[in-house]
């Protein structure tokens, strides 16, 4: 039951936080979820991580901390929402990994029940707002462009959730969190020029770069070690 709650919280607070901060700061602040995931893995899943892996995660967090300290567009609402978003992300990844390891569900069953149960609070929110009225009165349902983009959005949403589940199953909650941060590298830099809500500060820019480079270091270290382990096991055979 907690997994759909964390999934819903991740969605709700993530969208709310995105509206209040610039895209570069959003991607930087989201890296705190990686540190939270690492702590959760160590205490809840009893994972023992190499020192270089821990160092790269702390470096990501330090970079994000430097960037946030010199964020000229600081917004309490956005930062609060993103903090809760990070907690939900970390909790979701850890609970997901725990259920997959314990064989409570397979990845397909877990994805189905997680999405199905999360529908309940989403329906409540729709009924309490005017979203249902907007959907009912929307006049673009016959537009081919809308139909194509809507179906594509549904497909990409499914692929994102399924890929997240698959990555967590075969790797770890921490690796999934880092991969999620790496995919936002383009958002970090393009977001400085697109949207018009990023205010340049040298220290802030340095912090963003430290955090981004540290995420690449983690990825390189993790998959280099995995490749070396695979070669050793092949040699033994």
UniProtKB/TrEMBL annotation:
Q: Where in the cell is it found?
A: Membrane
Q: Where are the transmembrane segments?
A: 6-29, 49-70, 76-96, 108-128, 140-160, 172-192, 198-223
Membrane topology listed for this record = Multi-pass membrane protein
Q: Report the GO terms under cellular component.
A: membrane
Name the principal localization, coarsely classed: membrane
The answer to whether the entry has keyword Membrane is: yes
Pfam family of this protein, just one? TPT
Domain Sugar phosphate transporter: where? 38-218
Q: Does the keyword Lipid metabolism apply?
A: no
Q: Which UniProt keywords apply?
A: Membrane, Transmembrane, Transmembrane helix
* InterPro entries in the cross-refs: Sugar_P_trans_dom, TPT_transporter
Name the UniProt record assigns to this protein: Sugar phosphate transporter domain-containing protein
Query: What phylogenetic lineage does the species belong to?
Result: Eukaryota, Metazoa, Spiralia, Gnathifera, Rotifera
């Amino acid at each position: 039951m907690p997994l759909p709650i964390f999934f819903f919280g991740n969605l709700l607070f993530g969208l709310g936080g995105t509206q209040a901060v610039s895209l570069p700061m959003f991607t930087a602040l989201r890296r705190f979820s990686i540190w939270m995931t690492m702590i959760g893995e160590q205490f809840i899943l009893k994972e023992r991580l190499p020192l270089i892996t821990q160092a790269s995660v702390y470096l990501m967090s330090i970079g994000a901390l430097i960037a946030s300290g010199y964020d000229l567009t600081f917004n309490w609402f956005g930062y609060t929402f993103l903090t809760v978003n990070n907690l939900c992300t970390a909790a979701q990844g850890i609970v997901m990994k725990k259920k997959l390891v314990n064989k409570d569900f397979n990845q397909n069953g877990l994805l189905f029940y997680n999405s199905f149960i999360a529908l309940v609070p989403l329906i409540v929110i729709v009924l309490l707002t005017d979203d249902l009225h907007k959907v009912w009165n929307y006049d673009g349902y016959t537009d081919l462009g809308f139909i194509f983009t809507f179906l594509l959005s549904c497909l990409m949403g499914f692929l994102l959730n399924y890929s997240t589940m698959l990555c967590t199953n075969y790797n770890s909650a921490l690796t999934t969190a880092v991969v999620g941060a790496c995919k936002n590298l383009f958002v970090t830099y393009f977001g400085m020029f697109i949207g018009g809500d990023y205010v340049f500060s040298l220290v802030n820019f340095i912090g963003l770069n430290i955090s981004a480079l540290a995420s690449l270091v983690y990825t390189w270290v993790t998959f280099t070690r995995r490749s070396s382990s695979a070669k050793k096991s092949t040699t033994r055979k």
